[in-house]
Design goal:
single chain, alpha/beta, Creatine Amidinohydrolase, Chain A, domain 1, seven-stranded mixed beta sheet, 8 helices, 42% helix
Length: 243
């Protein structure tokens, strides 16, 4: 029995987006205007930031490939079967799931969505050489061009909705900072103080954005010798007088 290489798993209903439909459509429209200007018939995004920017979905790779195929008529994420229907629910576009029954099914999904596109934009600043070579094999006769810098400039110009999100994020970080101050005491380990800060921020995010995904919120809290690097990891070091 031949197992399916790709699937549609539209489980449940679409989830509310942090951004309005007008905001998401504006991003897509500006991308398509640039595609038409440069003669690009399809785009395959592979980075966390661009897939999130255009589809409102954040993937967790765990060694698997993820993508977002954009043409002048369709936007569709490519996700692993292990994620079930969540990518479709969270994303604003369509979704195509690839299975693990055979190696290379991700590229089968790419073929389904972008075959026939004479020019495809990809992210040279994110793609590995190995993946690019496999894309060329999956889409013979297709010219691949770099679109990473073009979309970077698009993302740099912030909308009012994005500015509002940044403001809220800064306010949440201030709450986390105050929680650190409140938990400071001699003999308390770094990780205990950081845990209190992170918990305070997650509570505030849940309050402000009740329909959001609660993921990747943390606190970098260093003391003593550990303060010599901004991104030094948490330790069990206990605060000392004079830190």
């Amino acid at each position: 029995m031949e197992q399916p290489k790709t699937l549609n798993l539209e489980n449940g209903e679409k989830l509310p987006s942090i951004f309005s439909s007008e905001e998401m459509q504006s991003r897509l429209s500006r991308l398509r205007e640039q595609m038409e200007k440069e003669g690009i018939e399809g785009v395959l995004f592979t980075s966390f930031h661009n897939i999130n920017y255009f589809d409102h979905f954040v993937y967790t790779a765990f060694g698997r490939n993820y993508g977002l195929a954009v043409t002048l008529k369709r936007i569709c994420s490519i996700t692993a079967n292990i994620d079930g229907g969540q990518p479709w629910r969270r994303g604003v576009g369509d979704n195509l799931v690839y299975t693990d029954w055979k190696r290379g099914n991700f590229f089968v999904a790419v073929q389904e969505l972008l075959q026939g596109s004479r020019t495809v934009g990809v992210e040279y600043d994110h793609l590995s050489l190995q993946i690019l070579e496999k894309l060329k094999a999956a889409l013979p006769g297709t010219d691949f061009v770099d679109i990473s810098e073009t979309v970077m400039h698009q993302r740099m110009i912030k909308s009012e909705e994005e500015i509002e999100l940044i403001r809220n994020g800064a306010q949440v970080a201030d709450i986390g900072g105050q929680a650190c101050v409140d938990a400071l005491a001699e003999g308390v380990p770094e990780y205990i103080i950081a845990r209190h800060s992170t918990h305070s921020m997650v509570q505030e995010i849940a309050k402000r954005y009740p329909d959001s995904d609660l993921m990747d919120t943390w606190t970098w809290f260093q003391s003593g010798i550990n303060t010599d690097g901004a991104h030094n990891p948490l330790t069990t070091r206990q605060l000392e007088k004079g830190d």
